[in-house]
Fold:
Amino acid sequence: MSSKNIDIKISEDLVPYLYILKGGETVSDKLTLSAVVGLFTTKVITLEKAAELTGKSIWDFIDILKVYGIPWGEYEEDDMDMDDVFLNKLGE
Structure:
């Protein structure tokens, strides 16, 4: 997956918390994971898309959600259908 550098401004008070975020080795990885988890929990993206954006398998992403204490099974039937299609592709 390609990446793009962007400049963002954040409060100095926020910086120490970036280093203690779960998941990811770099601050960039941690921010990406946090953003994707947020997008998933607000139902902006599917489980499949969330896993793809983090470069993880669906199962690994589910494990990350479990670490954060976030239920992953609360999504629409259409989302489940899309995930089933993706999982079937993996099984081919």
User: Anything to note?
Assistant: The chain has five helices and no strands. The chain has a mean pLDDT of 88. The CA atoms of residues 62 and 72 lie 7 Å apart.
